[in-house]
Design brief:
Blueprint lengths: L10 H13 L10 H11 L2 H8 L6 H11 L1 E3 L14 E3 L2 E3 L3 E3 L12 H12 L3 E3 L7 H12 L8 E5 L5 H13 L5 E4 L9 H6 L11 H4 L2 H7 L12 H13 L4 H7 L1 H12 L10 H5 L6 E6 L2 H9 L4 E4 L13 H11 L5 E4 L5 H9 L4 E4 L1 H32 L5 H6 L1 H4 E3 L11
Parallel strand pairs: 4-11, 5-6, 6-7, 7-8, 8-9, 9-10, 10-11
Antiparallel strand pairs: 1-12, 2-3
């Protein structure tokens, strides 16, 4: 089976559709430029939503570094390369994909739009783009899987999905989450390693707002039979002062608990779920030795997310891991950390055959091109689809996916590459370090 091309929704078709609508006085619902997209979404989301989705750790220097890293590299276009026929497809873990990108996991998506995870899942399925279901989702993986299968229907691309695991303190709960991911049709497991403790995030702290304490973003837990059993012995935790706001938040936690809100209020299940979540999330004593336990309990490919060091990459390979997500969590965990793109070339040199997903700071088709040229097998994108979700729900995410796919295909073609393989094979010729940046080029 040949790779599916983006031609049906690709460069020419997508641009022509936008310009044709413009003749009738219509402009895109989803701004094509990422800065405008972010600003438009910020006007829609409330303060808590903006803080959680847009914010980073500390003074947010890692977020800034992620963007500067892309600016530090420049594309070197090659002329007369015959790009009339283009193929944006890749193969990843036995799956042929139409585009070289996946949707990275973002928690508490209902902060952006009521459609939440299901809205993103349906949009991703409609375009055949893998969606990494968040461990901190607003809606459970089973509901997302059903929605994706219905949306994909008989489309040849199918509805690829992966699952992100935040390894909890309970191994029994971890095993249950993994088993549910397999049963939900997930094709890979993404173990996030960089959030064993929650980063210092001033935007959230200034509001005194952590969504999980309101019962938001814990649907994977409240729908899990092991977690529900553990809830019966939920440990006591520090109680906030009793105010009208406290009562309102308790009602909100009950409303988000599966089943009857009244029952959850009477039984205290909403508050108990929050307490058990606090006791469960996350596991700071996790070590490399624990990976063998996980490897024995799943048939799925396992990727480690949060790798920024070549030494860690080599250890992951030695531990039998199947891939890596080179990521600094979008700048949300360690202030002053290395940019993910800056870490990529050395990691590629350390594990030359390992699938690598470059995550953090990706905004444009040019960013995707640069990441592929520097050694990524594919890229992961996060905040832009959350912004599109805020603006337009499922339709907004689908429109953004069409935009980013068209922009990438156009960038690839204008750089003289007819396929992703062309980008990767010709990387020394199609990308160069910005002369103003005093840093050596990666090993070709």
């Amino acid at each position: 089976m040949a790779h599916a091309s983006s031609s049906k929704r690709g460069t020419n078709a997508r641009q022509q559709a936008i310009y044709t609508q413009g003749m009738a006085g219509y402009v895109p619902t989803i701004p094509p430029e990422p800065g405008a997209l972010a600003r438009a979404a910020a006007q829609i989301m409330n303060e808590a939503g903006r803080a959680y989705i847009d914010g980073g750790a500390g003074s947010e220097t890692t977020m800034d570094a992620n963007r500067r890293a892309f600016d530090d590299w420049q594309i070197v276009p090659s002329m007369l390369a015959n790009v009339a026929e283009r193929d944006t497809g890749i193969s990843l873990f036995g799956r042929k994909l139409a585009q070289p990108f996946v949707l990275s996991p973002i928690g508490v998506l209902d902060l952006a739009h009521p459609a939440g995870d299901i809205g993103v899942a349906r949009a991703a399925a409609s375009r055949g783009v893998p969606f990494i279901l968040s461990n901190q989702a607003s809606q459970p993986m089973e509901a997302c899987a059903r929605a994706m299968d219905r949306e994909a229907g008989d489309q040849s691309l199918g509805a690829p999905r992966w699952f992100q695991l935040y390894w909890p303190k309970s191994d029994e709960l971890a095993a249950s989450l993994v088993a549910r991911a397999e049963a939900s049709g997930c094709e890979a497991l993404v173990v996030t390693l960089d959030t064993t403790l929650l980063g210092w995030r001033p935007r959230d702290l200034a509001l005194g707002h952590l969504p999980f304490l309101h019962g938001r973003g814990i649907a994977q837990y409240t729908h899990d039979p092991v977690f529900r059993r553990l809830m019966k012995d939920a440990p006591k935790s520090e109680r906030p002062p009793l105010t009208r706001t406290t009562l309102k938040n308790a009602i909100g936690a009950a409303r988000r608990f599966p089943g009857s809100t009244l029952r959850a209020m009477v039984t205290g299940d909403g508050v108990a779920a929050v307490r058990q979540f606090i006791a469960t999330y996350s596991r700071p004593d996790l070590t490399w030795d624990d990976l063998a336990w996980l490897r024995e309990r799943t048939r799925l490919p396992i990727l480690l997310k949060g790798i920024l060091s070549p030494d860690d990459a080599r250890r992951a390979k030695a531990a039998g891991m199947d891939g890596l997500v080179v990521s600094n969590h979008g700048g949300r965990q360690v202030d002053g950390a290395i940019a993910s793109l800056d870490a990529l070339p050395a990691i590629r040199a350390a594990v030359p055959e390992m699938p690598l997903i470059l995550d953090s700071g990706v905004r444009t088709g040019a960013d995707i091109f640069k990441a592929l040229a520097l050694g990524a097998s594919a890229v992961g994108m996060g905040r832009p689809y959350a912004w599109a979700l805020a603006l337009g729900g499922q339709a907004g995410v689908a429109e953004w996916l069409d935009n980013i796919a068209a922009e990438f295909e156009l960038t690839m073609a204008l750089a003289g590459c007819a396929s992703v393989a062309d980008i990767q094979d010709a990387s020394p010729r199609v990308i160069a370090r910005n002369p103003s940046v005093a840093s050596p080029a990666p090993n070709a």
